[in-house]
Amino acid sequence: MLLEGKRALVTGASAGIGQAIAIGMAGAGADVAFNYDRGEEGAAATIAGIEAAGRRALAVRSDVADPDAAPAFVGAAQEAFGGVDVFVSNAGICPFHGFLDMPRETLERTMRVNLHGAYYMVQAAARRMVEQGGGGSIIAVSSISALVGGEFQTHYTPTKAGVLSLMQSAAVALGRHGIRCNALLPGTIATDINKDDLADEEKRRYMEGRVPLGRLGRAEDLAGPAVFLASDMAAYVTGASLLVDGGMFVNLQ
Prior knowledge:
CATH superfamily: NAD(P)-binding Rossmann-like Domain
Number of strands: 7
Keywords: NADP, Oxidoreductase, Rhamnose metabolism
Order of helices and strands: EHEHEHEHEHEHHE
InterPro entries: NAD(P)-bd_dom_sf, SDR_fam
Protein name: L-rhamnose 1-dehydrogenase (NAD(P)(+))
Distance between the termini: 40 Å
Number of domains: 1
Helix content: 40-55%
Shape: globular
Radius of gyration: 17 Å
Largest sheet: 7 strands, parallel
Strand order of the largest sheet: 3-2-1-4-5-6-7
CATH class: Alpha Beta
CATH architecture: 3-Layer(aba) Sandwich
Family: Belongs to the short-chain dehydrogenases/reductases (SDR) family.
Strand content: 15-25%
Pfam family, one: adh_short_C2
């Protein structure tokens, strides 16, 4: 029960990594509020998972690309739970597309959701933590794509590099308030975001072959690292980035 008594917020938690982190934090003792843009069934499953752990759940439907969604989400959690101790910026999209004919709207939407959305959400959570005192933990889900390139991800990789940089700068800006800011960098995690890409069996086998642990990641693989960074076990960890990729990044030979 590393998060017993804590109040955690997670964006984009109706499926995938966000859902796994939200339920994982509830299992570690936290009450959990989460945001989602679509997927009513998935949101209901997240609520059920949180409540099955014996914790309180709050679901708020909103689009992180809307700057006004951030204070509204944090405010709703404040009203329901009385405060914010942990914030996880997870919401993101990756519509794969080539570089030379990238539609303007695809680029701009990806930037608004992944980078601008993370910025506004983290800022709103930080403001609440500073106002209430007592510090807190902010975690942003970046990606191994912050460190490497991708032919069909020229719009996506800059946003994830930006999220990583945001956590580094926020760690400096918020350290005096006792707020720790860290980034998780997942490798290839099998979720809805890449299910079409991984439907190609040859590509899937290639990706699995690059991972020293011999398999692609599962959303649940991010829950433990997130709980650790949110907990007092990571009390002296800030500005850090944690790869959760089965060893893919170091397997370059």
